[in-house]
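seq:
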Amino acid sequence: KAISLNPDNTDAHFRLGFMYVMRKMFQKAAEVFESLILVDPENINAFFMLGTSYSELREYYPAISNLQYALRLKPEFVEARLTLADSYHNQGKYLIALDQLGTLEQFIPNEDTTYLHRGLLMMELERNGDAIPYFERAVEVNTQLLEAYELLVGLYESQGVPEKAVEWAQRTIAINPDNEEIKETLNRLNPNS
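struct:
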């Protein structure tokens, strides 16, 4: 109703588009954000949300185009850079995705998500040994990032380094004492613990 009363009400457009995104109605969200950009062509969040909507629709060309525009306006925009990396990743363009995450690391070196995503991409490329330093860095940045701890346990075990797997399992249990899966892994690797 606010939009029909005042078609230039950018806040109302954004809220409507955001509501569509939250309801996973991405096509409708894209239409709203396209309209918003016509009214407010420098609205970085509208470009981000439009790119996100297209990414969810698996329409990667417009997703990438809109996310790149948002990043031209604000290169250190974490969510836009991550969504752009995911868009490339979902197309199988792993090296470009890794490059985007590397760029984000330059802007915000203490963003744990960057390292976590880079490690996951390395695992997907079956470069497990190369993934380890990214997960270790993620844990340095965020000592409560349970997913990285768990991945390190599994990676060290699969790499044939049980003492490191035990070390990371113990560290995992220290931050999450109720983690039964890691307790079982620790008991299997180190029955004397």
